Structure formats: structure tokens, C-alpha cells
Amino acid sequence: MTKNMGKQDRNLRLVAAGLLILAGILTNTWWLTILGLVPLATSTIGFCPAYVPFKIDTRKDGEA
After folding, report:
1. 33-57 pLDDT, tens per residue?
2. Per-domain residue ranges for the chain?
3. Is 64 exposed, middle or buried (0-12, 13-18, 19+ CB in 10 A)?
4. Distance (Å) of CA 47 to CA 25, 38, 62
5. What CA–CA distance (Å, rounded) separates 6 from 56?
6. What is the pTM (predicted TM-score) of this model?
């Protein structure tokens, strides 16, 4: 797995994950909480499997 997510992409996913998880907790909706784990996991590892078929790489030159 080669990383294919840049810093900005990862940060936006962390914010989205936090909002989804918070919304799931506040509304007592388990599926929102589970849905929030997807962007949390992809931003943590820096790899998005959905980007692979489209050959998307949001890293800038020099980012690892």
C-alpha cells in the first residue's frame, strides 16, 4: 500500500470523521458512528482504496 493522500486531504477527513462520530453519539445513531470510522481509518494510514482505480494521488511533491 503506497500512500496516496496528502496532508490537506488527511486533515479534511479527520474533521469529517470527528463530525460524523460526534453526530452519531449525540443522536444515538450507531451507523453514523460506524460511518465516521472510515475517513478516520483512511486518514490515519494515508491510503484511500477508492483512489486506486482512478490513479488519484493528492500528495504534493516531497510528501511521504
Report:
1. 999 999 999 999 999 999 999 999 9
2. 7-51
3. exposed
4. 26, 11, 16
5. 11
6. 0.86
